[in-house]
Write a structure and sequence with these properties.
Distance between the termini: 14 Å
Largest sheet: 8 strands, mixed
Low-confidence stretches: 225-230, 282-294
Radius of gyration: 25 Å
Order of helices and strands: HHHEHEEHEEEEEHHEEEHH
Strand content: 15-25%
Strand order of the largest sheet: 2-3-1-5-4-9-10-11
Number of strands: 11
Shape: flat
Mean pLDDT: 84
Length: 351
């Protein structure tokens, strides 16, 4: 179906929805309003496109008039560039959407290869993501933070809550490599370490049905660096989902009840992502392939501190502003990854 035909059909559907909302008392107002709200941006963009098309055609017709040519030529050149740009925007808006894009997300970071240095960088990247999220007005809640004696982490989990979080963060899943001279290095040698990042769309209870009989719940005494989390009760919780083998442990809170609630939130997200993966082979087959093994040879991005650069190997993007990135300035990286994904999907549709 041609682009104009698709757009005209969507315009008709939008008009139909408006009519139903105003005249059908028994209609499902919530569902109809949601569908219309999703169509409205496209309808507005299409109206903008048609205005630009008319302005271009009118200016082109005026080029034959010597008295109007100079004025018409400037308008024609402007609209000649604007029409294809608007068409490109519309084609992107028509691409199939990931149903999870508008959701909040669960972020998990673990050190992999590199010992203490990997744990230190994992903590730094975790804080960088926190700064980015808070800068966009999203809520960043630490669910679990297992700190070591040097100030690094053995692992950390957070919930990033807000609209469209997963759409921005989902490309972060994978192995991140850091190259720098550790503070513990006495001879100035550059070390290479890796950490793994997993970003999962947050799942609601209606998305994932978990039976109590499928869970094994163990409690134990929490512990941490320097006794930070030590208490006299078995507040830490480990939940095993027997059918999938997924295990989630949580000890951040001193309340067993709160740790269990947080662990269930993470477990639900992991099961939901596993189900999405099974249903959509274009995505990672499971969480293991999403984060990889953590070996130094595997990486999606390298943070090279001596050269001050960050390189995303999937799209060949290199930015010489590592200080700003580590302060949470990820917009250039995230936007480039989204644009590359959109370009690939547009090319696949055209093929």
């Amino acid at each position: 179906m041609s682009l104009p035909s698709r757009l005209d059909r969507l315009l008709s559907r939008a008009e139909e929805l408006r009519h139903m909302l105003s005249t059908a008392p028994g209609a499902d107002i919530g569902a109809l309003s949601k569908e219309l709200a999703e169509l409205e941006p496209l309808v507005e963009k299409y109206a903008e496109y048609r205005v630009a098309e008319r302005a271009r055609d009118e200016a082109e017709a005026m080029l034959a008039d010597p008295e109007m040519r100079e004025l018409a030529e400037a308008e024609w050149l402007t609209q000649k560039e604007r029409v294809p740009a608007l068409e490109h925007e519309i084609r992107i808006m028509l691409l199939p959407r990931d149903a999870a894009d508008e959701r909040s997300a669960i972020l998990e970071i673990r050190p992999a290869a590199g010992g203490d240095e990997a744990g230190l960088f994992a903590a730094e990247l975790f804080r960088a993501y926190q700064r980015y999220a808070e800068g966009r007005g999203w809520r960043f809640e630490v669910l679990d933070y297992d700190e070591n004696e040097l100030g690094g982490i053995k692992g950390a989990t957070a919930e990033i809550a807000g609209r469209g979080v997963f759409a921005r963060f989902k490309y972060e899943s994978g192995v991140h490599r850091v190259q720098r001279v550790p503070t513990t290095e006495t001879q100035g040698r550059i070390h290479t370490s890796t950490i793994t990042v997993a970003v999962l769309p947050e799942a609601e209870e209606v998305d994932v049905q978990i039976e109590d009989k499928d869970l094994r719940i163990d409690t134990y005494r929490a512990s941490g660096a320097g006794g930070q989390h030590v208490n006299k009760t078995d507040s830490a919780v480990r939940i095993t989902h027997i059918p999938s083998g997924i295990v989630v442990a949580m000890q951040e809170e001193k309340s067993q009840h709160k740790n269990r609630a947080k662990a269930m939130k993470v477990l639900r997200a992991r099961i939901y992502e596993q189900q999405r993966s099974a249903a959509d082979q274009a995505r990672a087959a499971d969480r293991k392939s999403q984060v990889g093994t953590g070996d130094r040879s595997e990486r999606i991005r390298t943070y090279n501190f001596p050269q001050g650069r960050v390189t995303d190997h999937r799209i060949g993007l290199t930015l010489h502003k590592i200080d700003r990135v580590m302060l949470g300035d990820f917009d250039d990286i995230f936007s480039a990854l989204i644009a590359e994904d959109q370009a690939a999907r547009l090319a696949a549709e055209a093929a």
